[in-house]
Write a structure and sequence with these properties.
The protein has 201 residues and is mainly β. The chain is built from two helices and nine strands, in the order αβαββββββββ.
Length: 201
Amino acid sequence: MRKIYLTTLLLIGLIVSGNAQQSFWSLNWDITKGMGDTGDYIGNTNFRGVSFDGRYFINDNLTIGGFAAWYTLTDKVNGKALDFDNGDGTAGTITGTQVRYLNIFPVLINTHYYIDTGGVTPYFGIGLGTVYSEQRTEFGLSSFYADSWAFGAQPEVGVFVPFGYSGTGLNLALRYLYGSSAGDLESLSMFSFAIGIGFMN
């Protein structure tokens, strides 16, 4: 984990120092809330998410770029029934306290449109790509695990608030992440609110 953080900070430093092309980069803390099947599995709001976004302007208002994130969702559920099938003829239903974990890693190519106001800059866009999901349910000494790669789509609206003329500013974004059902996992559906530092040069 430490190597990932150091590599990310080094990458940001190299990008910000280069001015060959106008670009926008952000590093964000993400607050997440599951919807649909994801909300049924983990119903609470989670505060353990980080995202990184890099975009290049192809004209005054339009960017193309990439997005990557890591969201960790957890919940503790008491007294709920859990259906299981081990695939070896062992199946049934057990009831008790469950601890649920969901790790989500979207990697997307995105495009955004910026509304130039000469200062605070609203934007909206969409990302398409893949989402890796890892789901684990712990029940006493037992653990049930599933993971999958799936198609992902993420519409987004946000705003960049510059700090003076430095090119650095506050990035705020609201995103909806959808991942198709794959393997043993249901479709993914979640909102995230991102608060971070943006760099526009």
